[in-house]
Fold these 4 entries.
Entry 1:
Amino acid sequence: MQLELVEEQGRVTGRNWQDELRLPTYQEEWEAMAQVRGMSGRHVRFLCMDQSESRLPGHPRLNPKTVVLPEHGCPFELGHTGFVIGTVYAFITGFDDLRTEIPSLFGFALPFEPEGDFIIGQAVLFDSDLANASWEGLQKEILTHVCPMTWRADAEGAEHLVQVTLTPGDYPGCPNSQILAMWEAA
């Protein structure tokens, strides 16, 4: 057995974003808020991950080149609650030469220089009360980051992206995985 020192120990209090967004206490109320009526026109673009040092114990780095992206998108969840508020429908990879071509190919520039290789995602929110509360959290900059959820599937170390979670800034293990843009389509 090997023990590692956990740096920066101490009492940590996270942001109470659920209260800030007036979200319910009980599971049944969350389930009622999460009922999907359809798709909305609300879109979110985010840096899903780069190679920056994580905030996780041991400070591992993600390697976007080893991540297998889902063929048909993946769930967009709210705050590690288990409740899905939308779907991630597009990914853009910033590997090698493509990292400098993003503004000309896709019509937007990144507001900061990601560390190493990176993956950008875009999601569309559902039409639900919970997705509406999430949109309010995005507008008020309560929810500012995402957390890519992956699982390792093979001996070569490939990680499969299975879900992206919308979180406040005090949570993400990948500090650069932040919201880049939000818009509402007609």
Note: Residues 104 and 164 are 26 Å apart (CA to CA).
Entry 2:
Amino acid sequence: MSRNMKLLGAVAAALIGFFLLWQNVLNRPDKLALSPLSYSDFASWSVVPKEAPPAVWQAGWNIDVFLIDQAAELSARTGAQLDKREQQARLQGRSLEDAFSKLGTVYAPLFREEARNDDLTRAFQLYLKQQNRGRAFVIVAGAPVPSGILDMLRSDAILRARFGGFYVLETDDLTPANALEASGVDAGVTTGAAYCDAHLVDDGTCIVPLQVSKSHGLLTLAENSGLGADPAGPFLAWLESNAQKIAEPLGDLEEVEIIDIRRPGDTDERRDDSDDN
């Protein structure tokens, strides 16, 4: 009897194992194919200000925070999972928005797992074109900064002039050493010299590590994170003394048609004859 019970137990365990394998691996649905996000739509951002901050030509220097949040990475196998992932991204974004409120206004895009470099780069480009309006900005990295954004910083001196550096949310997977995904393209893997102006590199503030903690399942800054009581102050002071503000755009000029007004009988032929005489 004992032997039969053991046999039945082994068979039951094998059936349970096969059921779990079937449910979680063999019969697991593929990940959803997500459509490209439209960053002109505020729904494609986990955090975006309700009211746009004033432009630099209106109110002087202010700082924006472009947040690359690992929780904003969208990947799911069902619609319900996707909704839950998006909700969590917005909760996490608001938590970090509060944490960085003394530094600046937070912009945090959602992005697809399978297209993170493309999505984040497009979001950054649209942010600069439509939302930044000449203000200074920093990048908070809760995940590696994609190569597309780093390429823009490395190649655009005017953009770097109002860039205040990288703030890295240190975790087991993310450190200042691996936060720059394209590090090694140029010098400055640990100092960020390829992406920051000299004053940030010299001050050691191009890449700032920040300690984080978890509260109610959400990542936030630790009590002694390293952000400081007035993180915006030194950068704003430097901008005021050294950086040139972008002028207000004039807008699109309408094309003007120039019409040659002549008197009756004033033809090209008569003008040619007059010139010959």
Note: The CA atoms of residues 73 and 111 lie 5 Å apart.
Entry 3:
Amino acid sequence: MLPLIAFWSGLERAWGRKRMLVLYWFFHTLCAALAALPWMGIAVPALSRSRLGDELMKEFDLGWLAEIAAQAGTGAPAAAIVASGAAALILGLVAVCLSAGAVPLLALPESPYSPESFWRHAGRNFWPFLRLSLYSVVPYSAALALAGMLRSGAHALWGDGLEAAPLVWANHVRLVFLIVTAGLVSTAMDFAKVRLALSGSRQSLRACLGSLRLVWRHPGVMFWLWACFAIAQGLAAGLYVELAKRLEGGGVAAFVVLVILQQCYVMCRAGLRFAAWGAAAELDPILRPMPGADLIAPPPDQEPAPDYQI
């Protein structure tokens, strides 16, 4: 029940920050377009010379990359790596900066919103959030390593057998384990961002470890909280894909509707991201009560004391 309450509370907090959501969507989309420019330098020449490449790109087929490599020779894989690295770096830094501005305003829904306050929080929290994103590589890598150990153990047990079914089921178990573990780590990082934003601290490593410990102590609550958002994102993605299939090949009008639908889907994903941060802000004081939390709360017009500690 508690994860569901936090889920709805997160949605309410996200809905209350509609202006910030539009600002977040605009800059995220703009920077995503800039990040795609290096890839367009590789894709456009290939698509202009090949109808097969156009068809493969529509279906996101990896054979499209193979065709580019065949056309350009050995330089294409290196160019693809450079383009991917540049796009990932741009999107990563933008995501950190935008989350640094959005999380504090979602964690404190009573605080007034303005673009100036958004960018002020973004500048103040950028470096702690960036360090947190780097620290998060460790638990994600650990989850990937554990999934690899499961695969190695399955091959050690059934790799020489005549039946393939045990390995198939073991691969399914490994995939589910990896998805759930990565989701729990992502949820822990949401709590860590809330802790950094509310405490005004720069101790990113301590926030990261404390949030992972919180997941360890309350696995059921964290799992169902992540499951609520995973189901919501899955439903949104399924609806978008189904509508996009129906609009393909419908002419100019259908193409315009498809572009609008795509941006609505991007906005929906950003809203769910906002809601996840809001849900973390709702749950963190409940799962980790602060000393003196039972005292009388200060009046609404009084500035809260900076007693939120990591």
Note: The CA atoms of residues 104 and 197 lie 5 Å apart.
Entry 4:
Amino acid sequence: MTIPNQIMPILKKFTVNSDNGVEFWLYLNEMDLTEKLFEFSSALMIEQIELTSLPKGYGLVAYIFYWETNCQFSGWYALENLSDCLDVIINSYNDIGLKEEAMGIQKAAEVWDETLQNYDEVTVAYKSVSNPYADENNRWDYINAYLKKNASALFYE
């Protein structure tokens, strides 16, 4: 198992001050891992890495945390800001087992367009799905645990 060469420069930037190597997903505690995944996602999107040529975990991190970042700063306007990759984002949540989150985002997106961006109605649509991970902290804990548990399949060739 090896990390793909094309991702190594980005990983080295994030772990330059670490004694643990580039595999930060294996050794960081939950809070630090979440923060690092947000940073890593931004780097992957900025660098415009061809994610489809990498093991699946890099795309999952890129799109899920890119979505989460946009939601934190733009609220439901993330639906419009990321409309070109919303299907990939929804599929990413499905792929990691957060089907309720994916369904909530899908329902929110449908209502966003139907109601001409009515924030309140979009929120009602999102919340219409029973979702144990609607709270972002619970969601991030789940994602972190999923990535750690499946690291060998997600981040290595």
Note: The chain has ten helices and no strands.
